[in-house]
Design goal:
Layout (H helix, E strand, L loop, with lengths): L5 E4 L3 H13 L5 E3 L8 E4 L4 H14 L6 E3 L6 E3 L2 H17 L3 H4 L3 H5 L5 H4 L7 H22 L1 H21 L11 H20 L5 H19 L6 H18 L7 H24 L1
Helix pairs in contact: 3-7, 7-8, 7-9, 8-9, 8-11, 8-12, 9-10, 9-11
């Protein structure tokens, strides 16, 4: 015998829509209930999903209690997190500093130096850009892709894994130096965020109610964006490919339930900060 849907009350229409999009992004399909003479706005979910839905809403409310940075994108299952703006501010700061103080000599990826132990260049090079157009391109695209990745996985995990993916792309460039010139730029990190989002499409498809057409559309869009943005003839294709591939692999790790815990997200944010400061401390000493 099928049990009737379970109701989750909400304060108003906007909260009902916000919570419904959050639940959809986690594979639960609620029905928005309009107010009647007995009840106000609310959501109805399947009884077997009621407990998980309440936990998802609890985590969502705890993450957004102080900061109104996360905004569901209607009818997509994605959430945009404005935390990515802090990353844009950081790369602009490093560009401003690089114009005034020569950071590139010790911070760019020199393949020969990396192979001889200068591992910090894999990370420091992510923060540098050759010129203002290079900065504007990565900043604009990265703001959007990282914002979506932060909305799906949390700011800490998304920034950390995208950053590691960018370093992974630089490592691939150092191991297989098709171009022996020094490398710099956040493109590998941006491609890493794109890889994380491509994995997000796979996770949504696995949940009930997401047809194969959704998988082909979203995953195909991710690959098409990589071809469009990452395979430009005048770009560092090796670093882009490495960043995208690392993003796909690390995105699978982020799908583990452990990364949904608030303390894990805080830890990832702390590791991202440490992975930024330590390489720069080593680079500037040399």
């Amino acid at each position: 015998m099928d049990l009737p849907p379970t109701r989750i009350p909400t304060r108003n229409k906007r909260q009902a829509m916000d919570w419904s999009l959050v639940l959809v992004s986690q594979g639960i399909e609620p029905v928005i209930e309009r107010p009647d003479e007995f009840n106000g706005w609310g959501l109805s979910v399947a009884p077997e999903e009621h407990g998980r839905a309440l936990e998802i809403i609890r985590l969502y409310r705890s993450e957004n209690r102080r900061w109104g940075l996360r905004h569901p994108i209607a009818q997509t299952g994605f959430v945009f997190d404005w935390s990515s703006l802090s990353w844009v501010i950081l790369i602009c700061f490093f560009y401003w500093l690089d114009v005034r103080v020569d950071l590139r000599t010790s911070a760019m990826v020199h393949p020969a130096d990396v192979r001889h132990g200068a591992w910090w260049q894999l990370f420091t090079a992510v923060w540098l850009h050759a010129h203002i157009a290079h900065l504007a391109s990565n900043g604009t695209i990265g703001f959007i892709l990282l914002g979506l990745a932060c909305g799906r996985f949390g700011a800490g995990p998304a920034l950390l894994m995208s950053y590691i993916a960018g370093a992974g792309g630089n490592l691939l460039r150092a191991i297989f130096p098709v171009n022996t010139a020094p490398g710099l730029g956040a493109s590998g990190m941006v491609m890493g965020a794109l890889g994380l989002l491509a994995v997000q499409s796979l996770s949504l498809w696995r949940q009930r109610g997401h047809p194969r057409k959704f998988l082909l559309t979203t995953l195909g869009t991710g690959i098409a964006l990589f071809i469009l943005l990452g395979l430009s003839p005048d770009s560092d294709v090796t670093a882009h490919f490495g960043g995208f591939a690392c993003g796909l692999l690390l995105g699978q790790l982020l799908l583990l339930k452990a990364f949904a815990r608030p303390w894990i997200k805080v830890l990832c944010g702390a590791l991202f900060l440490a992975a930024t400061l330590l390489p720069w401390a080593l680079a500037l000493r040399r």
